[in-house]
């Protein structure tokens, strides 16, 4: 049913203003962002199809914005730009939490932050969270991409970036495009290599997180650090 045919108090925007955002379903919230549908397809239907296609709100947030181009109705720039803005706001909100609180005090926020940045990428990316002496986020940098091994991730570069940020500790992170977050032997070996290199400049490795769409694994929590 087109939005204009719904009773005023059932239309998403009016419902949000009257009852608050928590009263709306995911598709209704997304419909407000999309604003309009396509010929023969109302915005609510489009929102429902978008959520189904990408696996719900979490899947949509973890989706590379360029992947949206192939979804009917998102081939133009305007709606994709609006969704990209929502994604970036989510990233920045999580980053603010990590800057204001110790990373280890908010492990869920840290995992969500890393998933938003890395999980949807179609290639492997190795990133580092640089932390201060209170384990608060100073910066995040994507340092390497491609197949990650001890020979493709350079400990010297990681050490130099840690010194640049005057970091007291780091969290290592990378994604598995395959969807599995189980660490490989190469992941374990790389972690130990970097841990030893960073220890020489008195920088602690607090964790190595592996992410994939909808999943994340902390190697520290698994006793692999």
- Unreliable residue stretches: none
Beta-strand residue fraction: 15-25%
What is the CATH class of the largest domain? Alpha Beta
Q: Tell me, what's the shape?
A: elongated
Strand order of the largest sheet: 2-1-3-4-5
Number of helices: 8
Largest sheet: 5 strands, mixed
CATH topology of the largest domain: Cytidine Deaminase, domain 2
Q: What is the rounded distance between the termini? A: 54 Å
Query: From the helix content, strand content and strand pairing, which structural class follows?
Result: alpha+beta
Helix amount, in percent?
Answer: 40-55%
Let me know the CATH homologous superfamily of the largest domain.
Answer: Cytidine Deaminase, domain 2
Q: Any idea how many domains?
A: 2
Keywords: Hydrolase, Metal-binding, Metalloprotease, Protease, Zinc
Pfam families: RadC, UPF0758_N
InterPro entries: MPN, RadC_JAB, RuvA_2-like, UPF0758, UPF0758_CS, UPF0758_N
Domain MPN: 103-225
What does this protein look like?
- The protein has 225 residues and is of the alpha+beta class.
- The chain folds into 2 domains: 3-90; 102-218, 3-Layer(aba) Sandwich (Cytidine Deaminase, domain 2).
- The chain is built from 8 helices and 5 strands.
- It has helices at residues 12-19, 26-34, 43-54, 56-61, 77-100, 107-119, 155-164, 185-199; strands spanning 125-131, 137-145, 169-175, 204-212, 215-218.
- It starts with 11 loop residues before the first helix and ends in a 7-residue tail after the last strand.
- The model has no long low-confidence stretch (mean pLDDT 83).
């Amino acid at each position: 049913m087109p939005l204009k045919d719904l009773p005023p108090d059932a239309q998403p925007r009016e419902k949000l203003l009257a009852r608050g955002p928590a009263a709306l379903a995911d598709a209704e919230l997304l419909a407000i962002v999309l604003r309009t549908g396509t010929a023969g397809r109302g915005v609510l239907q489009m929102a429902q199809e978008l959520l189904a296609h990408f696996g719900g709100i979490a899947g949509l947030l973890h989706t590379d914005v360029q992947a949206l181009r192939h979804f009917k109705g998102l081939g133009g720039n305007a709606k994709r730009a609006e969704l990209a803005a929502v994604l970036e706001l989510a990233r920045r909100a999580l980053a603010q939490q990590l800057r204001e609180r110790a990373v280890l005090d908010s492990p869920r926020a840290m995992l969500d932050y890393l998933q938003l940045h890395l999980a949807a990428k179609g290639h492997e990316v190795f990133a580092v969270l640089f932390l201060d002496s209170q384990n608060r986020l100073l910066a995040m940098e994507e340092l390497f991409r491609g197949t990650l091994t001890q020979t493709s991730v350079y400990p010297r570069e990681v050490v130099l970036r840690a010194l640049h940020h005057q970091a007291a500790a780091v969290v290592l992170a990378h994604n598995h495009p395959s969807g599995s977050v189980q660490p490989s032997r190469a992941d374990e070996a790389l972690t130990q290599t970097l841990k030893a290199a960073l220890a020489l400049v008195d920088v602690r490795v607090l964790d190595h997180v592996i992410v994939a769409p909808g999943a994340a694994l902390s190697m520290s929590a698994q006793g692999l650090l």
